[in-house]
Write a structure and sequence with these properties.
Helices cover about 50% and strands about 10% of the residues. It has 28 helices and 15 strands.
Length: about 650
């Protein structure tokens, strides 16, 4: 039996959720057998399938349309008069807008009484359609036979609410909350690109701006049509402009209204292209110095740009698995926490921490760490299905971020897991999975010096055609704005023109500098000198990292500040004795009595998370070496 009580507790309108679950099962069972279409406000039917490959539903040439109705019946179970009028209206609209449909399906969440069934099938005499009636019985049969996780996402233990997603995010972000600087968030170029992949309307403002510009040009053409129409090619121009505006307006409106399925359909049907006659026409205008020549030239440029944006939108909405690479302290955790936090119009995504990735664990182990309340995820596919269904109800895409893949006990374990995940995500188009990981290169390596270390990306990520890699370069082009905003928040008065922009490009550097300079923000502080390296603030850097480790909850072992400082001193002694930039991880773990702690509480894992040390594979058999994240930091630790 379907748990309709659980279904009715879901966020969103019940009629909309009913349509979503019905559409999802038909898509899953039959979309591969024909042309499946689902448009919002489609007259007559919510979705339809034109069969081009024989299937259990019917033969080639059959065209099915489904109309889902969620109406409260009368007390005796019969249909209300208004419901009957609504059903007849849908049938009539189908005859007008989709007259070639052969089979018309009414889908309701309950059994119709005998008289209502007789009335419904009697409508067949007024149409050319074969009428069918689906109820909760057919829905349950579909869900039980091929969509068990979908059933759990709407009627069972995976039916998650937006409040539960927010609570899950709050719980998972706790261990890294001090690295999430919510008060002054500076969006990076990579963050902006990820928001575009999630289909956020505001991230695609260039689409709206181009549409506005084209509409202005059409108004100008209308005003000057008397002279412009005398020149050969005018009809080609107006046809192109109007077609671009019509199709762009449809995409922009669907994106603004968060109708992602409709956006994808419109992108698939995009047919605009600037004809050669338009370019010939504008050359004629230039030859006679027509006052509209420049405006129409700009319109052609707008149309060409619109084509590029639409192509990029189609590509971006098709992304499902992305890797974000950055050096230690480059802003990965800030990005992960911010991107998965709930915003107006989008529920919280799911944040998973790399420190949970113990040796030999799998995606299923990660999913089990995300269970909340009565919702238990036994497999990673449970988690994906739950998140995908929540995204559909919210009419958006939702992010699932694994932050710090490089912090896994053995990053090599995850290449195969991510390849499996890539295939799995094809069934969950409303989920965007993002893995952040540290490049193994320190600042010195980035500038062309220091040891070349094995890249975590090469070790733990699939090929780039499976998982695209984006490079997060700290604040990047927004560094100067970040310095200004951070100094304002920390009440630091200074000449911003003297600030070392490249040094502060790395968010952790700017954050530590501000924390050291004016931690309490109780009064304004004037600064006349900026550091040009981390050496001058390494004490605070190490103290800050140790303090964060001490504050971590739910570890199997609790650390004291003096204990952590002694471990860093042990690291310095070991490096000195080895006369090398690195030592064996097993040696350090033995010296710090770290051999029996679980990976999430291991001092090696925690120091790696905080950007104090790097871990690098030694032999490909699970043995690692560790080294300070920066050569200068290593020198400081040894000298200390």
């Amino acid at each position: 039996m379907l748990n309709w009580g659980k279904f009715c507790e879901l966020p969103g309108a019940k009629f909309n959720n009913f349509e979503l679950v019905c559409r999802s099962v038909i898509r899953q069972f039959y979309a591969e057998y024909g042309d499946f279409r689902a448009l919002s406000n489609q007259p007559g039917v919510e979705f339809h399938l034109n069969i081009n490959k024989a299937c259990p539903l019917g033969d080639i040439g059959r065209w099915f349309g489904w109309q889902c109705k969620w109406h409260e019946p009368n007390q005796n179970g019969s249909l209300k008069a208004a419901t009957k009028r609504d059903i007849e209206d849908s049938l009539n609209k189908t005859k007008t807008y989709l007259p070639n449909i052969t089979d018309w399906v009414l889908w309701v969440p309950y059994q119709l009484v005998k008289d209502d069934q007789k009335w419904y099938f009697g409508l067949g005499s007024k149409t050319n359609f074969n009428l069918h009636l689906y109820t909760d019985v057919e829905l349950e049969e579909y869900l039980n036979s091929g969509c068990p996780t979908l059933k759990r996402s709407y009627f069972g233990d995976l039916a998650i609410t937006e409040e539960e997603l927010a609570a899950l995010h709050s719980r998972n972000v706790k261990p890294i909350e001090r690295r999430w600087f919510k008060d002054v968030h500076i969006e990076s170029d990579i963050g902006f690109r990820l928001r575009r992949m999630l289909g956020e309307h505001l991230a695609w403002s260039d689409l709206s701006n181009t549409l506005t510009s084209l509409k202005s040009t059409i108004e100008l053409i209308d005003v000057n049509s008397a002279s412009l129409s005398q020149i050969e090619g005018f009809k080609h121009l107006t046809h192109n402009c109007n077609l671009y505006v019509q199709e762009l307006a449809g995409i922009e409106l669907s994106l603004r209204d968060k109708k992602m399925e409709e956006v994808n359909h419109l992108l698939f049907c995009w047919s605009c292209d600037v004809s050669i006659e338009c370019y010939k026409y504008v050359r004629k205008l230039r030859r006679i110095n027509h006052p509209c020549a420049l405006h129409i030239t700009n319109a052609l440029a707008d149309m060409a740009y619109a084509g590029k944006v639409v192509k990029q939108l189609k590509v971006y909405l098709g992304k499902s698995l992305i890797a974000v690479l950055s050096e230690a302290g480059g802003g990965k955790t800030q990005l992960a926490a911010q991107l998965t936090s709930p915003i107006d119009g989008r529920p919280a995504g799911v944040l998973i921490l790399g420190q949970w990735l113990g040796r030999g664990s799998s995606l299923n182990n990660l999913a089990q760490r995300c269970s909340i309340g009565s919702i238990a995820f036994h497999t990673f596919e449970d988690l994906l299905s739950c998140l995908d269904s929540a995204a559909k109800r919210a009419r958006t895409r939702l992010p699932l971020v694994i932050d710090g893949l490089s912090e896994a006990e053995n990053p090599k374990d995850w290449k195969t897991e991510l390849e499996i995940l890539s295939s799995m995500l094809k069934d969950y188009p409303n989920v965007l999975v993002i893995c952040t990981l540290r490049t193994s290169c320190s600042m010195q390596n980035r500038l062309g010096s220091g040891d070349n270390k094995e890249s975590f990306a090469e070790v733990s990520l699939p090929e780039e055609d499976i998982m695209e890699r984006l490079i997060l370069d700290g604040f990047g082009i927004f560094t100067e704005g970040a310095i200004r905003d951070y100094c304002k928040y920390y009440r630091i008065k200074t000449d911003l023109l003297k600030a070392p922009v490249d040094f502060f490009r790395r968010p952790l550097n700017l954050f530590i500098f501000c924390e050291v300079t004016n931690p309490g923000r109780s009064r304004e502080v004037t600064v006349t000198h900026f550091p040009n390296s981390l050496v001058s603030i390494f004490n605070k850097y190490i103290e800050y990292a140790c303090d964060r480790i001490c504050g971590l909850k739910n570890l199997s072992y609790s650390y004291r500040m003096d204990e952590l400082i002694s471990y860093i001193n042990i690291l310095g002694i070991a490096l000195w004795e080895a006369g090398s930039r690195h030592i064996l991880e097993s040696d350090f773990k033995s010296r710090t009595d770290d051999t029996r702690r679980s990976w999430d509480s291991s001092i090696v894992n925690l120091l790696s998370q905080e950007g104090i040390i790097f871990r690098d594979s030694v032999d490909g058999f699970g043995n690692f070496s560790i080294s300070p994240a920066y050569d200068s930091l290593g020198g400081f630790i040894v000298a200390k």
